[in-house]
Amino acid sequence: MIKVDATGLTCPMPIIKTKKALKGIESGRVEVIIDNETSKENLEKMAKEMGFASKTVREESIWKVTIDKVESLSKETVKEVKSVVVVASDRMGEGDEELGKTLLKGFIYTFTEMEVLPKTILFYNAGAKVTAVGSESVEDLRELEERGVEILTCGACVNYYGLEVGAGSVTNMYSIIEKQMDAERIIKA
Amino acid sequence: MKTETFGLLALESTNVVMKLEKELLEKNLRVRVIPVPKEVTANCGLSIKFSLEEADLVRSCVEGNQVTGDYYKVTKTGLKKQVEKL
Fold this sequence. Notes:
By secondary structure, chain A is of the alpha/beta class. Helices cover 41% and strands 25% of the residues of chain A.
């Protein structure tokens, strides 16, 4: 059994530590000690979502949550789905332009830290600027490409904005539609 | 496995992060804004990634703006990160 002492930690640290411990084992039991009720509830919820049984025991000011990881179920939770990310603009979300650009850079960067990656990232309209030479995201995109992510930028858009592609390759409307039709999940920046 | 070591400056305000990024880039320092790694704090803000060799220059620029932040040293091996407070 693995013990995780998360006393003195506030959300989401107990969850992160527990997830790490669960990830480290094929199957078995993880016992987490926490000292606040919110974490107790969140841990129980997380176990349920992951399909693992959990049991909580209260001992004075602490809670002990034991989670049993079952191998067969855990495989299902990490099952890869065909995800396609769509970047349709040079900023993330609507609102302040500068903030949106900063957020989009962070969005692309954070993918490089993910274990499970999307199959394809599509860039069109001003999104094409993100893959262009001179963009601060080019290096991250190259890294993702090395790890097997398909980076595709709308050719008409590259042409319209007078850009030079710095990462990935150019594509056309047919494959922009095909990739999305084929996706099991579409993520919008 | 690829190992990378860098400095990280976590600040409270998004506006300050964006303002400092601009100033630091104007000084030709190798910085970039990244979301605060989960290993660092629970807050969901932005942080400034910098080269440890330029830590002093980053610090003086930050102090010149009369803001305070938390500095960390991050060692990234593959996807795993080890964070130490500086």
